[in-house]
Amino acid sequence: MAEKIRVRFAPSPTGHLHIGSARSALFNYLFAKHNNGSFVMRIEDTDQSRNVENAEEKLLSSLKWLGINWDESIDVGGEYGPYRSMERLNSYQKYVDQLLEEGKAYHCYCTPEELEEEREVQLAKGETPKYSGKCRYLTPNQKEAYEKEGRKPSVRFKVPKDKVIEVHDIVRGKVAFESNGIGDFIIVRTDGIPTYNFAVTIDDHLMEISHVIRGEEHLSNTPRQQLIYDAFSWKSPKFAHVSLILNQDRQKMSKRDESIIQFVEQYKELGFLPEAIINFVALLGWSPEGEEDILSREVLVKRFPLDRVAKSPAVFDIAKLYWMNNHYIKEASLDRIVELCLPYLQKENLLPEELNEAQREWVNILVNLYREQMNYAQEIVELTKDIFVDELTYNQEAIDILSEEHIPVVLSEFNKQLEQLEEYIPAVIKQVMKVVQKETGYKGKQLFMPIRVATTGLTHGRDLPETLYLLGKEKVLKRVKILLTNKHID
Ligand code: GLU
Prior knowledge:
Bound molecules: glutamic acid
Shape: elongated
CATH architecture of the largest domain: Alpha-Beta Complex
């Protein structure tokens, strides 16, 4: 019988969903869907000092926004629960006891001060610090003495000596680690709570996880986990460590790197579309067959084999992300993009909270006109600022254009025609331009440029009749009138 594919994304609740973690989540999700498997979302919260309040909700909501939906987790349950490590403490105990009984783990009574001292001595000698194994062979009397002192033991895994630990990684092939480089590591802290390496192994085993797909930063943890699998004679899942993400300067991405938008929540706040993020993140370290870059979720699911995940680091190219999001913005329905843009305009008090029908129509035209230029929705504010500004100032280029000889003729006619207008909509404004052309004999650039510069102060811009419509009749007339009485064009 074919192996049942079960994968998991196992974030620790330490903050918002990072874009790198979103990639791990996505690769797991795509792999599960591609193979009709199950995608498990498990919260790894045993490192309580790192846990952050509300982080769990934030992680869940970012994943939901991206549409990375899980089959089993803390909210929907499942057969392999609980899905929060701290609720699984009872499941771990039995395995800790087993390792202790079999002599594969031992109690360690070293205090943090003693461990620090040991570390400093090793460092001073130029050695890589690792636990010396001091408590490996304590006699019952020594243990009793420590207990009497009130010391609480941690539990350490006894790392076998002189062993080569082989990890089979789908992305990297065979990766070998020397056991002598790994000190006996803590599997249960003095407070009785298991560490990540222990909990993750037990959880992955009990949850029958078939593939562990995660970031390369966890590769160095894998030999420890492999040792635990071996100690229980369990078959380990297949591992796939996805390469690091580099910034544009090809440096390892750090959480303080400002050239990268770090958290999924920030993308949402800036008005990115989730499908663009999915598409972009999927290509961070995975390349489909073929050249195309725009890949829908359905196509990604269909095409996602794990063996096309790259060994070399992925470079986070923000320009590509902008391009991709812009593509999806242009593809989306106008209603959706209007809904996305509105809050940014409202927040700047450029539009009221409640829109009447005319305002709605106006904003539809506004967004439609500018969406082609938008990398993300928040940019609507900057892109449209010339539409909202009350007083215009003309730069030298504009002044020069407005000083051309034929300008008063064009502007007066335009002014005259506008004043007579009853219906001020783009189609009618377009007609007005035609009439001005007929009446003045000026056409093309000689017609459009004066009107554009006079009403917007700019020599370039979007469709002129629509821009004039968006500015509103009153503003347009006011600007034209000021110029008609201005000495520059006298
Ligand atoms: N809890 C780990 C983290 O947030 C996940 C490690 C793993 O996937 O094994 O980085």
